[in-house]
Specification:
With 111 residues, this protein is α+β, with helices and mostly antiparallel strands. It has a single domain, classed as GMP Synthetase, Chain A, domain 3 (2-Layer Sandwich). Helix content is 29%, strand content 16%. The protein contains three helices and three strands, in the order αββαβα. A three-stranded mixed beta sheet has the order 1-2-3, covered by helices on one side. α2 links the parallel β2 and β3.
Amino acid sequence: MSTTAPTDAELQQVGEDVVDMLRSVYDPEIPVNIYELGLVYDVQVSTDYHVHILMTLTSPNCPVAESLPEEVKQRVGTLDTVKDAEVEITFDPPWDKEMMSEEAKLELGFL
């Protein structure tokens, strides 16, 4: 990483790389990645390459409530362009199946 401030295009690329990585993380109970499930609400990349991910779980009682956010943090942290990653869990708004992509709905038989 260079010592000059990154361009918007560079930050956008890091954001896209983060999203690609999020597409490799699956809820173990559902055969669809967390991004297509609509569990990721926001990805922010700061000019010093810190990544903040705002996401939810399918329910507050989700069996992977402890492990899934940590897996997301670790996976995103493996990207060379990411200095560190922070995952924030929210239940506002609560997740529902309408947040899934069309692809995820098709995969799970909701279409």
